[in-house]
Specification:
The protein is α+β, with helices and mostly antiparallel strands and 166 residues long. The chain has four helices and eight strands.
Length: 166
């Protein structure tokens, strides 16, 4: 596993629509392993392939406290949403920035695993937020495109009213 460079805002890769992942081979497995290592090293909870310069529909997410529940989503599609939640979001590609974003509270996603097998995953709360955030990356969209408001430096370091909802 290698730590890859995370692409930051201003790099045009972040604004492009990713292509479907067609091959489920050792190169994909290496990409998934590298993405997980990169995400953990950067202390993130999710990472999409375009964030490491690869325009493929590939995402890794781990929102667990123990950092031991890695989900790999290849060619993911949200098939159902419900409810609403409002909370803070940041992004490894926008270091030092955060915003308040409204997302669905419950999300059902269909995706393929590293071997090409389809599965369905039902998520809610923070996990649902992470799924929506990472899947937006696959379509060239960032949280700043859908934010309610950007946080000030003081708000990032402190408490905001939206934190009470979580």
């Amino acid at each position: 596993m290698a730590i890859r460079k995370i692409v930051e805002l201003g790099d045009e890769t972040l604004r492009k629509v990713c292509k479907k992942q067609e091959k489920f081979d050792s190169r994909l497995h290496q990409l998934l392993d590298d993405m997980a290592a990169t995400m953990y090293d950067a202390q993130g909870v999710g990472l999409a392939a375009p964030q490491v310069g690869i325009l493929r529909r590939v995402v890794v997410i781990d929102v667990s406290e123990e950092r031991d529940e890695l989900f790999e989503l290849i060619n993911p599609v949200i098939v159902e949403t419900s409810g609403s939640q409002c909370g803070r979001e940041g992004c490894l590609s926008l270091p030092g920035r955060q915003a308040v974003v409204t997302r669905p509270d419950r999300v059902v996603v269909q995706a393929q695993d590293r071997n090409g097998e389809w599965y369905e995953l039902e998520t809610e709360g923070f996990f649902a937020r992470a799924v929506c955030h990472e899947l937006d990356h696959l379509d060239g969209k960032l949280y700043i495109d859908v934010m309610d408001r950007e946080l000030t430096v003081a708000e990032i370091q402190g408490h905001i009213p939206e934190d009470d909802a979580e």
